[in-house]
Amino acid sequence: MQLRQTKDNLSIRFSYYLARLHGSQELEGKILWRVKGNGFSLEQISAYCSLNVDEIQVLIKS
C-alpha cells in the first residue's frame, strides 16, 4: 500500500514541478522581450544574467 501511494505522489509532484518550470520560463521570456524592446542588445542582457545569447533568443520566442 505504501509503495503505491509513493508512486502516485511522485507523478503528481513531477507534473507540479514541470508546470512551475514552464511558467518560470514563460515569465523569463516576457521579461527579456520587454528588456530587449527597451533598447538593450542581447549581448548586454547576456552580460547581466547567466544566460547566453542563444538561450535568451529561445526564451524571447516562447
If you had to describe this structure to a student in words, what would you say it looks like?
The protein is mostly helical. Helices cover 84% and strands 0% of the residues. It has 3 helices and no strands. The protein has helices at 2-37, 42-48, 53-61. Helix 1 (2-37) crosses helix 3. The model has no long low-confidence stretch (mean pLDDT 75).
Share in β-strands: under 5%
Could you describe the largest sheet, including whether it forms a barrel?
none
Determine the N-to-C terminus distance: 42 Å
Indicate the multimeric state.
Answer: single chain
Overall SS class: mainly alpha
The succession of helices and strands, N to C, reads HHH
Low-confidence stretches are: none
Principal-axis shape:
elongated
* Percent range of helical residues: over 70%
Tally of DSSP β-strands: 0
Using the CA coordinates, give the radius of gyration.
17 Å
Overall mean confidence score, pLDDT: 75
Number of DSSP helical runs: 3
Walk me through the topology.
Blueprint: H1 2-37, H2 42-48, H3 53-61
Quick structural summary:
The protein has 62 residues and is an all-alpha fold. Helices cover 84% and strands 0% of the residues.
List keywords for this structure.
62 residues, mainly alpha, 3 helices, 0% strand
